[in-house]
């Protein structure tokens, strides 16, 4: 009797961020070697923790601490890694076009992360730093140091060399200025620049910094940052970024050689390019995390949009939710392969903690408000928890942060 050999299905994961890495580790654990071919595609040979990037951008942490080679975390005997850039998803043909080839899939997980949202403000891509990636962080750090070096090496130094603008007082903007303001004394001492020459602005369109966050914690954070020399301009939308600085909606200009853009994110441009129905690059996924109308395509992390029915607004794009989605996505792919019913995804928001540089942070965990060093401790624990979920205690020991 002839034995028929069934073809193993191809599971392809696009993007090795929080969502992609957790999906990959869970799938390799849940599926036997003979059950599927699993492939992870990422544009770099390394995985990076986006949530740490404000630190290397301000120069308070080495960029290498935020990244790790993919082969140091994943067992490449169980999963194939392809270093390449995704160009387009051909949904009907069940294949993905890469910069250097193409790859066929039976099941696809799209988790290509986010890109900067400009809300149509001109000049962002040309004159501001807006890429929250390892190389983006390196660029900001080097640029800041160059401004300091140039200031003292110019016959008539311009004040704008030492003016630093952060656009948006969301969590990214606040965490970045927290690190930069903490590093300022060291930069001033190193480059022989009087501290009073440096200006740091955080410019926010909404009537408050960190809109929607606990007002008492916002006040604590703003007071602390102001005590380090940060000036907030609240209720003050930026209308344009130019070669010389920013123009506000009021028409006023602030001259600055450095504008760091942090006004929020949209999903990957690959989503739109591939013809998926989307809202600002994010696909409103079904409750089982599949793209509507596509039985075999899961979309998770910052590329996915899910509505919080309690407030009728989308859940924020966070690593916390990306990781939770990845767990359910892996379970659902296995269920789909076996013909079982799929799980419904419901985020379990444990809290939010934002660092303010040094040993300072603010946060809400469960119903508890945290300030100062206790919030700082919690933030480091959250950073380490991710490493634990990804690679167990060994990875925390190797790559973790000291909570002190
Ligand atoms: P990512 O983690 O960004 O991963 C996407 C991956 O896809 C990357 O590896 C990228 O290289 C790869 N990729 C992109 N395009 C392509 C392509 N065309 N081809 C191949 N590969 C590609 N969230 C929290 O919950 N807590 C926090 O404390 C927190 N802090 C943050 C701090 C900062 C400074 C920033 C910027 C964000 C922070 N966030 C935080 C948000 C969080 O980082 C994101 O929600 C999270 O990274 C989303 O995970 P993801 O897997 O969807 O995308
Ligand atoms: P965000 O949407 O949270 O904040 C962006 C801010 O920019 C808003 O306050 C908005 O009013 C402001 N803004 C928009 N247009 C503007 C303009 N033209 N001029 C001035 N201000 C303008 O975005 P983010 O801070 O980039 O964060 C992105 C995602 O990552 C969010 O979901 C956030 O929760 C998450 N995140 C979480 C943490 C944390 O938990 N510690 C840290 C960083 C980011």
From TrEMBL:
<protein>
    <submittedName>
        <fullName>NADH dehydrogenase</fullName>
    </submittedName>
</protein>
<comment type="similarity">
    <text>Belongs to the NADH dehydrogenase family.</text>
</comment>
<dbReference type="GO" id="GO:0003955">
    <property type="term" value="F:NAD(P)H dehydrogenase (quinone) activity"/>
</dbReference>
<keyword id="KW-0274">FAD</keyword>
<keyword id="KW-0560">Oxidoreductase</keyword>
<dbReference type="InterPro" id="IPR051169">
    <property type="entry name" value="NADH-Q_oxidoreductase"/>
</dbReference>
<feature type="domain" description="FAD/NAD(P)-binding">
    <location>
        <begin position="10"/>
        <end position="326"/>
    </location>
</feature>
<keyword id="KW-0285">Flavoprotein</keyword>
<dbReference type="InterPro" id="IPR023753">
    <property type="entry name" value="FAD/NAD-binding_dom"/>
</dbReference>
<dbReference type="Pfam" id="PF07992">
    <property type="entry name" value="Pyr_redox_2"/>
</dbReference>
<dbReference type="InterPro" id="IPR036188">
    <property type="entry name" value="FAD/NAD-bd_sf"/>
</dbReference>
<dbReference type="GO" id="GO:0019646">
    <property type="term" value="P:aerobic electron transport chain"/>
</dbReference>
């Amino acid at each position: 009797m002839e034995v028929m050999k069934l073809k193993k299905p191809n599971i392809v994961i696009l993007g090795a961020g929080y969502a992609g890495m957790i999906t990959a580790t869970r799938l390799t654990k849940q599926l036997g070697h003979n059950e599927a071919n699993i492939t992870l595609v990422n544009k770099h040979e390394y995985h990076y923790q986006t949530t740490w990037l404000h630190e290397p951008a301000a120069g308070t942490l080495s960029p290498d601490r935020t990244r790790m080679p993919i082969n140091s975390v994943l067992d490449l005997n169980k999963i194939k890694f392809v270093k390449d850039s995704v160009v387009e998803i051909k949904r009907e043909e069940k294949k993905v076009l890469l910069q250097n080839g193409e790859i066929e899939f039976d099941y696809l997980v799209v988790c290509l992360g986010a890109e900067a949202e400009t809300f149509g403000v001109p000049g962002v891509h040309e004159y501001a730093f807006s890429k929250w990636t390892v190389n983006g962080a390196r660029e900001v750090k080097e640029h800041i140091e160059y401004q300091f070096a140039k200031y003292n090496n110019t016959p008539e130094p311009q004040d704008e060399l030492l003016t630093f603008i952060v656009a948006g007082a969301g969590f990214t903007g606040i965490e970045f200025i927290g690190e930069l303001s903490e590093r300022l004394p060291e930069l001033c001492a190193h480059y022989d620049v009087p501290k009073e020459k440096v200006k740091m602005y955080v410019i926010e369109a909404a009537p408050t910094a960190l809109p929607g966050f606990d007002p008492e914690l916002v006040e604590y954070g703003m007071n602390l940052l102001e005590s380090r020399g940060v000036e907030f301009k609240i209720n003050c939308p930026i209308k344009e970024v130019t070669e010389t600085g920013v123009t506000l909606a009021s028409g006023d200009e602030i001259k600055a050689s450095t504008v760091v853009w942090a006004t929020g994110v949209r999903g990957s441009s690959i989503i739109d390019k591939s013809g998926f129905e989307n809202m600002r690059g994010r696909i409103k996924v079904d409750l089982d995390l599949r793209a509507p109308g596509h039985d075999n395509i899961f979309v998770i992390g910052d590329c996915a949009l899910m509505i919080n029915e309690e407030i009728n607004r989308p859940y924020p794009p966070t690593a916390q939710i990306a990781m939770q989605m990845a767990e359910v996505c892996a379970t659902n792919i296995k269920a789909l392969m076996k013909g079982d019913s799929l799980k419904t995804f419901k985020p379990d928001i444990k809290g939010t903690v934002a660092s303010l540089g040094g040993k300072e942070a603010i946060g809400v965990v469960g119903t508890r408000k945290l300030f100062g060093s206790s919030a700082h401790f919690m933030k480091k624990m959250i950073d380490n928890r991710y490493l634990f979920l990804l690679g167990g205690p060994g990875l925390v020991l190797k790559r973790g942060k000291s909570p002190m």
